[in-house]
Amino acid sequence: MSEDPVERVLVVLADSGLARLPEVVAGLEAAGLRVDEVLDSVGVISGAVAVDAVSALAEVDGVEAIEPITTFQLPEPGSDVQ
Amino acid sequence: MTTADNGTTGRYLVLLQDDAVAAGTKALNQVAGIRAASTADAGVDMMSFDASQGVVLHQLGVAVVNADEEQAMALARAVVEPGPIALLEQERMVYAIAAPAPAEEPTVSDESVFTWGLQAVGAQLSTATGKGIRVAVLDTGFDLAHPEFAEREIESSSFVPGEEVQDGHGHGTHCIGTACGPREPSEGPGYGVAYEAEIFAGKVLSNAGSGSDGGILSGIAWAISNNCPVVSMSLGARTRPGDPYSRTYERVAARALAQGTLIIAAAGNESERQNGVVAPVGHPANCPSIMAVGAIDAQSKIARFSCGTVDKIGAVDLVGPGVDVHSSWPVPLRHNRISGTSMATPHAAGVAALIAQATGARGLELWARLTQTAQRLPLPSTDVGSGLVQAP
Description:
The complex is a heterodimer.
Chain A: E1 6-13, H1 15-18, H2 21-30, E2 34-39, E3 44-50, H3 54-58, E4 63-68, E5 71-73
Antiparallel strand pairs in A: 1-3, 1-4, 2-3
Chain B: E1 8-16, H1 21-32, E2 36-38, E3 54-57, E4 62-66, H2 69-80, E5 85-92, H3 116-120, E6 134-139, E7 154-158, H4 171-180, E8 198-203, E9 210-212, H5 213-225, E10 230-233, H6 247-258, E11 262-266, E12 291-296, E13 318-321, E14 325-328, E15 335-338, H7 341-359, H8 363-373, H9 381-384
Parallel strand pairs in B: 2-3, 6-8, 6-10, 7-8, 10-11, 11-12, 12-13
Antiparallel strand pairs in B: 1-4, 1-5, 3-4, 14-15
């Protein structure tokens, strides 16, 4: 799997999934998610997954949505508008 | 119906005490000899007025009555005595509302004592200081060696792999200065809104100014677990018209609100209004449960770069001062003057901290108080939402 293209994703849990977090995390790992971080206070798990396995994550019970990770970039420190 | 020259009708409105409509109707007769019909009786409405001396609108607890001078005096006396008659007012003529000419907003330009931004949000007039309120600023970190913050309580954490909290960019130090900086710095005008708030500096953007959702969400979780009522996020990514908002951030923000944490984020700087281009509110400020802040200048005009509401989603909720904003900057410079919705956002976050301290409001109640007390501006709501944030 390590040669396959991977996507970094956010997994947001439904309230029902948040109530049984360890079980859902195990389900996500079984579906191919390499977990970076579990943020239990907000019900979000970040991680990486093979591109062709993204849809399988969405099928895990208790998952509300899978979204790609966005990156942010500020202007240079010397810019007038930041 | 006679019409007086002073905009009144010659009739009177009599407010009755709560749950005293029947007693009040009787009192009108006893006190002033006015026999009023009540809409509680079949067939009585305001059209019945000509046939009687008054009409009691029983659902409102208000009577509209004809009264001569002597009767009006008698009613006025009844107001100050115990009984069912609570208030007497002259009935007024009302007209369809015509648009008034927009008033020219006063310009704030004297920065000898306080920045124009502090004055525009009325921070210098407020007795609130932010004391006891934790404000998390998720940005490029903070200059922990800045001399104007030497006495302050500062918690910090870095969510950028391989980088310390120390701000190698400047943006985070500027934002923290506006939200929580001093009122009497060693030089220049006072620039901090909530100058006694507890500072929680979360580094989620690198010294090169870049970051990603993972670090930002970790920062939000850190703020929640530290019971910060206010999270200020002067960051965002460009969106295109029609883009949906992030379901992840929306869920996160709603869960944060439920735990007493309000997330305030920059609307974005992608507009070019001088060219007629208004860009949509960026990610994640476009989420309904995240408060999106646009920028105005010292003349209360919308900043040319400030993103606007262009879709059914992604509303600008409020505006703050965001043009030529003087605040702290890492040493050796110490101060810098820059523009952006990034600068407007910590003004709103600082005001949120003042309101949180003054009222005890948290979460959605804090959101409501911010919008309720905002100063309305003669500008499109799609650009400024409820208007300019105001200190309590």
